[in-house]
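Long-time lurker. I teach an intro course on protein structure, and each term I like to show students one example going from raw sequence to a predicted 3D structure in token notation. This year I'd like something fresh instead of my usual example. Would anyone be willing to generate the tokens for the chain below so I can use it in lecture? Attribution to the forum is fine with me.
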Amino acid sequence: MSIFKSRRDDFSQTPHGLPEKLPADEKIIWQGRPDFVSLLNRVFLFKYILIYLLLLTIFSFILNQSSYGVTEAFGGLIENTLISIFCLGLFMFIGYLTCSTTIYTVTNKRIVMKIGIILDLSLNLPFLKIDSADLKLNSDGTGDIAFTLNPSVKIAYPHLWPHCRAFHFSNPKPTLKCILDPKNTSLLIKDYWEKELKDHVKPTSEKLINVDLTGKELIS
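-- Reply from a regular --
Happy to contribute to a lecture. Here you go:
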């Protein structure tokens, strides 16, 4: 099974979010996508950019008022406000495209990440290629599930962003980013990962599987 697949036929009779029909012994058990507001704030840092542009606009207005007068200052305020709205709208648009073009799928044998705005790619992560996973719970109720892959699996960081753990350039970790109900989703993945592992790995080399819902190790 290849790791990456591109969508070649938009009209093919395949399940939504998958590059091809599933084998007879495989079924979809969960599908989801990033939460728009959470992704906007945590990946694109929308709140910080908003505060920065607001402070910049206020500072510019005060500076122009003291140098050129109230009339010129208000003209500059309108101009800076329009530029700020355009920049914020651009970030929101990119965030919306990221969410709307992403579908995370969990089957009983693998995880499939349909990602990409311009180039539509599907990343196949068989459970047998996953060494461990980490659950991070966010304050807004969403969460991230990051997967550490077998060293034999090579994926470039730019192919994954923003669906990966930040700053792990040498060993990128594919991540289900800003998903809703992360606790139950992590338990679901753990159960099927454990079952798949037991079906293919000899008892003498079984791995220990633990779940820590405080935001640490999911599978080890």
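Some talking points for your students: The chain has two domains: 4-8+27-34+109-219, 39-98. Residues 1-13, 204-211 have pLDDT under 50 and may be disordered.
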